[in-house]
Amino acid sequence: MRTSSVADAELARRAASGDGGAFGALVDRHAPAVRRAARALLGNEHDADDAAQDGLLAAWRAIDRYDPARPFRPWLMRIVLNAARDLQRRGFVRRSEPISPAEAAPGLSPERETDRALIRDKVARALSSLPERQRLAVTMFDAEGFAHAEIAEALGIPEGTVRSDVFHARRALRETLGSLLEETR
Amino acid sequence: MTSPFNSGPDEALGRLLRDALEPAHHDAFVTRMAAAVRAEARETTWDILAGWARPGIAAAAAIALTLAMWLAQSRAPDGGVATIADAVESSVPTLLLSGGADAGTDAVLAAMVGDR
Q: What ipTM did this prediction achieve?
């Protein structure tokens, strides 16, 4: 059976019985979102990947404690964000660096690469100017499509706080990225 | 009117954020994770085996100790028969075959009368 059509809870159940392939399918499905969220928190891609790897391994070890009656994504995101905060606490976080054109848009013409890198850099800077909780809330809500309740579960805060964080983060980002956002719409 | 706290996702902002945070080399990351999970699974198997080995060694040591104590206690206080080897050495056939000083009618009689 193709794992792309299998629900998270079923893959998690198989993973809990020792099926590494099922866990691999979960990683394939959710790695982009957890890596982006870790990057929003830490501001550096390499640290974000270290944190994501630590978090995903922690999730593999704890997979038998996952409750299939609850959504999988917030459970996984919470573990990865805890790993990211742990990395941050231990002081292993590198300084965030501007995104290089080649990294931003491989395969594009040099001019377009540069444009895209500048946009990415501007957005990353705007995001990094927000408080940590707002950064995570707006990334998870607008970029990853989490519901407020799922974000609340992942961050361990009340749903009302998530709504407020998303609202304030958006207002700040719209102020900073106004013209860019208009071009994107 | 919809509250600004209840609005849905902002697609344009979401696209910009995804693009800015986009991780590189997804396939390489997934491959690295799969290897890490396999290594973790192997380690766990060894942990389980090690977990079994410790009680196994303890059980073998306990059995050896019990056997040694049983052998020591089975030795009678008057220096009587303690082991199978002792029993064989002092048996009538052995005495007769070895032609020792005690061999002879006395030994045969003693064996026939037994404990009577």
A: 0.85
